[in-house]
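Dear colleagues,

As part of the handover before I leave the project, I'm documenting each prediction I ran so the next person doesn't have to rerun anything. This entry is a single chain, and its sequence is reproduced below.
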Amino acid sequence: MMKKKEVILMFSGGRDSFLSACYLIEDGFRVCMATFENGAGLQTYNAAHGARRIIETYGQEKADPSVFGRQFSTCKSPYSNGSCRGSMK
């Protein structure tokens, strides 16, 4: 029985972390994407958007969105009323 490979990836949703997640998944890793909400308005939105794209492509069994907490459902727009702030616990 082969041991399952898992990795935690600091994920901003930018080109580098997005492609890193894709390459890791294609190399057989299950990727847990972690981000940090620092109060910069678009960061959480970009990370959530990038994570959604990865999950749509590879599936939830290979990419873990749970580390994003509730922001997946609350981040509607990068110019929202700030509902994404503080959603990372």
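The first strand starts at residue 6 and ends at 10. The longest helix spans residues 41-58.

All the best with the project,
I.
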